[in-house]
Amino acid sequence: IFLSLQQDVIAGFLYAILILVVFHPVVDLIDNFNLTYKYAPLIIIRTAFEMTAVEKIEEQFASLRIAKRSMLSEEPAYLLDIDVSKPAQSESSRFVAVSCSNKSIRVYNRETLNFLREYSTHPGILNGVRFAHACDSIVFSACSDGTVKCWDIRLATQKAVQVFSGYPSNVFISFDINCNDLIICAGTEKVEKDTFLVFWDARGITNCASATKEPLGVYSESHNDDITKICFHPIEPNLVVSGSTDGLVNAFDINKDTEDDALMSTCNSDSSVSFIGWSGKDYKQVYCMTHDEGFCWWDIAQLDTEEPITLLHVLDVRDAVCVEYDSLQYLVGGLYHEKADKLFLIGGTSTGNIHLISCGTDGLSLVGTLCGGHSATVRSFCWNLTDESLLTGGEDAQLLLWKPGAVERSLAKKASMKIASSVQKRVRVHNSSLKSRKK
């Protein structure tokens, strides 16, 4: 009995047998209700597996230590977005790309964080960075100058190998590329009464150096304000979800002929959307975060049923999550952990602490906190589920690689270098006064 069910599945099996032997009358009672006790060990073992998966994540997060720290550049900048190359041609990802508030993209070695390349997007402001899925040396960025640019980090040139141009009034503030690298979609700011989702054919990237591609078409009726986030489905290339400052989160099937037919669902977050993602088995759930630190979670698989699609709606995560001896001041993003079948949120404090938050239909709970890495607000992260490593970037201009049980060998000292917000008009400011904007 004293064996730990959480550490040993065999112990769970033995414990189940012991219960059956000692409490046999209870088992007979169960039989009277047309239930069979032969499944009891399987139920207990399954519970042990589930508990172990979640607790293992908690232990791994708690064991994360700084393994590498990038060298500070001559021009410090906020690190706004992070993406890692997909291991298409090697066993692990090789590169990290970071979009910065000084209108540049920086590329680093994934393991050493040694600086490799930098691309400037002057005069436009960068909004996001993504690697192609099939080629780990191709990286994309959206820009406020009305383009999505494609860069090949194998080349020494500073020139984009391909440019996807929008329409004259387009100012792109979000974008993504689908899982088979065929379609790019970018979201625009609202100009007068217009806001667009713009689509391009992304095929032939490396065969058309410096070519400019025109859009395939647009969606223009589903949002009525700035489209702040776009996220393609991880395994279904025709599904995409978009979020906007109008509070709406829309899911589309772009294989359909018209925008009306393509719109699968519209969910209302009741606030300006700051982050969206897919979760759940087969990724049939959608979640979002808002600029006033709210959280919404929907199951769009229930659209054609009588079951409610809302799994959880939290008006202010800062009030809902108890953080002992610390605080939760903002949300950074989310991640669905396939092995544990669990959705997690990343949040933090203005002093650089990082909180991992577990999501369930019964609410949110703190899993753990990382301290001592960043000295200012964390803006971006990328969690590698293969080796359980974590990349984080922040307003202190630092890119950090965290690994379980790592020992930092770098002599570089952590320095607080908070950058003036005026250098990046589109940097999100976390303001406690937004708490009063709940709808």
UniProtKB/TrEMBL annotation:
This is WD repeat-containing protein 89. The chain crosses the membrane at residues 9-27. WD repeats lie at residues 119-154, 371-403. The keyword Signal does not apply. PROSITE patterns: WD_REPEATS_2 (PS50082), WD_REPEATS_REGION (PS50294). InterPro entries: WD40/YVTN_repeat-like_dom_sf (IPR015943), WD40_repeat_dom_sf (IPR036322), WD40_rpt (IPR001680), WDR89 (IPR039328). SMART domains: WD40 (SM00320). Keywords: Membrane, Repeat, Transmembrane, Transmembrane helix, WD repeat.
